[in-house]
Amino acid sequence: xxLPSSLRMSSTVALAAGLVVTxxxxxxxxxxxxxDAHAPAAVTTALAAPDLSLTNVKAHLTQFSKIAADNGGxxxxxxxxxxxxxxxxxxxxxxxxxxxxVQQFTSNGATGYNLxxxxxGGSPDQVLFAGAHLDSVTEGAGINDNGSGSAAVLETALAVxxxxxxxxxxxxxxxxxxxxxxxxxxxxxxNNLPTTERSKIKGYLNFDMIGSPNPGYFxxxxxxVIEKTFKDYFAGLGIQTEIETEGDGRSDHAPFKSAGIxxxxxxxxxxxxxxxxxxxxxxxxxxxxxDRCYHSSCDTTANIDDTALDRNSDAAAHAVWTxxxxxxxPPAGTVFENTxxxxxxxxxxxxxxxxxxxxxxxxxxxxxxxxxxxxxxxRGDLVVDLVAPDGTAYRLKDRSGTDSADDVRTTxxxxxxxxxxxxxxxxxxxxxxxxxxxxxxAFRLTF
Length: 447
Ligand code: TRP
Ligand code: ZN
Ligand code: CA
What we know:
Blueprint: H1 5-8, E1 10-14, E2 20-24, E3 42-44, H2 54-70, H3 80-95, E4 99-107, E5 110-119, E6 123-133, H4 143-163, E7 169-176, H5 184-191, H6 195-200, E8 201-207, E9 218-219, H7 224-236, E10 242-243, H8 253-258, E11 263-267, H9 276-282, H10 306-325, E12 335-338, E13 342-344, E14 351-357, E15 368-376, E16 382-387, E17 393-397, E18 408-414, E19 423-431, E20 438-446
Parallel strand pairs: 1-3, 6-7, 6-8, 8-11, 9-10
Antiparallel strand pairs: 1-2, 4-5, 5-7, 9-11, 12-20, 13-20, 14-19, 15-18, 15-20, 16-17, 16-19
Helix pairs in contact: 2-3, 2-4, 4-10, 7-10
């Protein structure tokens, strides 16, 4: 990949903590920049999603298994094991700072529950949504179907909280009730969502059966951006995926799709049999169902392929992070820095080093920190100004016939509150006396 020229010399990446990492492209010399060369702006990148802990995901499965065991062997709609599952997930989310809502509905004469969790923040008009059904069939505990998706979505949400992730989009998570009765809970949710609220949902990601014991790696063939996000993730792990074909519309993404919302999701297979070609690329047993315990009593914690569960959980977190990131404003305290050296000609014209400030709103700080590193053999020669984007100059240092020390390495504080923050700021340096010379080593602004 070829970099844009502005980034070729060095790219400065502002991290959340306000740290700055300056990376030089290999083989590129830090030559003195042209006097007016624009420095790379601080580039905020979407922080990478955390690698979810398989141990944590499996701990949720263990709890779902216990809940089923304590409640007549299942977590089905209208049975106490479903409500206990809702209570378990809700308690984790409440403790992690989510705003949770339990939406009730009636199906088959029994009360059903959808659990919705909102992560505070993000654009209210841009919602990224991830969900899984939390009910099982009555035949068993439903650990692969769908403890697996429920646990992955829960662990993704908890990872958002641990990271105190501040995505551009608003994040919402849901654990649906009565999926096994015909997508009842998710249909209820979508049908009761006002049109304006529906239009805010920019994507719905579904996770239903993602730890099948003889797994395939299936990606829903729906919204192309969501699909590509998942496919790219697996490609990065060197795993080939296939399009999900074991029944389009057989899970909770269907009502969202019907409402015109972009959807996607992951699936490791149900009762269909793995082909020889699939066993070739994914391992496992050809001629055998992806999940021989689908909808039966043996869908227990033993009915999980750990590797598939781990990869799919990580893919869920990756998609949630990636699809919600957008372009975020750099956090306060971001350092915008130009470390390209600029020669200061002896007794010559002024030269500048520039940084492009972007992503800020309003004016610059009243106590703007201006870091100046100039290497010089007689700093009294130097006149140094900070030049705002509109050309206003702030004198940082005058010349002095008696200051014979080397170098200027200091941080000035400038009241820049009258200046718009965004734009190209320059450090202007002029050497006003003959003999001694030097160069601008670095120029940085902390916003
Ligand atoms: N819970 C779904 C069901 O019982 C499982 C399933 C079957 C599925 N085929 C699917 C989920 C395809 C997603 C995609 O129908
Ligand atoms: Zn299911
Ligand atoms: Ca000089």
